[in-house]
Amino acid sequence: MIKAPIPKEHGMWVIFIIPVLIASIAALKLNIPMSLLFISAFFLFLWRHTTVQLVKNWQKHEKISKELIIWNIIYLIICITLFLPLVLFYKYYKLYYFIGLSMFFLLLNILQVWQKKDRDILNQVLGIIALTLIGPGIYYVLMDTMNLFIGYALWIGSSLYFIGTIFSVKSRTTGNPYNIISFIYYICVICVVFILSIIFRFSWIVVLAFVPIGLKSLYYCLISFKKVNIRIIGLTEGLFSIIFAILFGILLIYS
User: Which of 34, 190, 232, 246 gives the lowest tally of CB atoms within 10 Å of its CB?
Assistant: First the structure.
């Protein structure tokens, strides 16, 4: 049997892990159910990867690898096996909402791949929305209750941040107009979050979590374009994602 297939896109790993980090910081604790949910979601993440590979092989009329099918089934079985104790033993019934929403967006994401639109921005956005749902799910099992404000903030905040990284990465690989689009996007995000803080009466300080990435986008707008090695781009985005996670998690506590 071929070795276990795992995603090679570093960006997908960051999008999956950062919401977990934010939720853990905001909750200020860890527990066993959180570990079960994280590992279960991890295998769902791997299942999505192998499903996409199967779809691509089918499109190319290539021979479908039996080993890939086996790994696809193994990933799904492990995911379900680890998820069941969370609802049967720990009674986290609201996790059904998160898994349902996540599967909905993942299936839309896979459908886009089926239609050969896997490189489209819409497909990347669908993937981000699906993966960042792990954040509110983790927070729910850590706190034993669902704080709707924190839950939505984790999901929407993480999604808005990572959607912006689509433009940020393109700005370093192709230059304008994505330099300008990236900067305008983060300015809009900062303004929207600030306005929402007034409407829903939560602390505006959560806006500060988006400031570092906004300043980075401004810096890229001001300097002359120079194509950067993709690994350097990945490391830079990863570093700023960690900064965002720490800031956002801490600021949510005081919001």
Answer: 232
Tokens of 52: 């996409």
Radius of gyration of the chain (CA): 19
Question: What is the per-residue pLDDT for 1?
Answer: 56
DSSP 8-state secondary structure symbol assigned to residue 30: -
Check whether residue 154 and residue 140 sit in a common domain.
no
Tokens of 214: 């906004």
- Are 138 and 168 within one domain? no
Last residue of some domain: 146, 175, 193?
146
pLDDT on residue 225:
66
CA distance 120 to 129: 15
Residue 46: give the domain boundaries: 1-146
pLDDT at 8: 82
Quickly list DSSP for 195-254.
Answer: HHHHHTT--GGGGGGGHHHHHHHHHHHHSPP----HHHHHHHHHHHHHHHHHHHHHHHHT
What is the predicted pLDDT for the residue at 173?
Answer: 79
CA dist., res. 24 & res. 242, Å (int): 13
Cβ atoms of residues 114 and 60 within 8 Å: no
Q: How far lies 145's CA from each of 149, 150, 255, in Å? A: 12, 11, 18
Q: How many folded domains does the chain comprise? A: 2
* CB-based contact 217:180 (threshold 8 Å): no
Positions in the chain whose pLDDT score sits under 50: none
CB burial of residue 18 (10 Å; 0-12, 13-18, 19+): buried
pLDDT at 2: 64
| Tokens at 132, concatenated | 């960042």
